[in-house]
Amino acid sequence: MLEVAARRDPRDPDGALGAYAANQQPFDVFLLLVFGLVGFMMRRFSLPVLPLIIGVILGPLMETRFREAFAISGGEVGGLFNETLAIALYVIAALVVVVPLVLRRVRGGSVAESLAEEEELVQR
Description:
There is one protein chain. By secondary structure, the protein is mainly alpha-helical. 75% of the residues lie in helices and 0% in strands. It contains 6 helices and no strands.
C-alpha cells in the first residue's frame, strides 16, 4: 500500500478536491495552497515543521483557556500571576528560552556559529 502512495503523481487534485468538498468554499482551496507553500518553504530552508503543526493544533485550545482565565479574573492580568505554580511555570519557560542563549554568549561563540556547529553534527 505504501508503494502505491509513493507512486502517485503529486499534481493529482485529490487534496484540492477534498478541501473544496468539506465546505464547498473556494477559500478553502486557497488556504490549502497557502499552507502547502508555507510547508514547502519550511522544508526548502530546513526549518522544522513539527512546531508549526503543534502550534496549529494547540493554538485554538490555548486561546480558549486564555480567554477563560481572563473571564475568571475579571479581565485583570494579575489573575495570571497570583498562583505560585503559575509563576514557577513562567520562570521555567523563560529559563528554557534564555539559558541556551546566555550559554552561547558565555562560551564565546556567536549564535550563528553555534547553529552551524549543531547543523554539522546533525548531518554526520
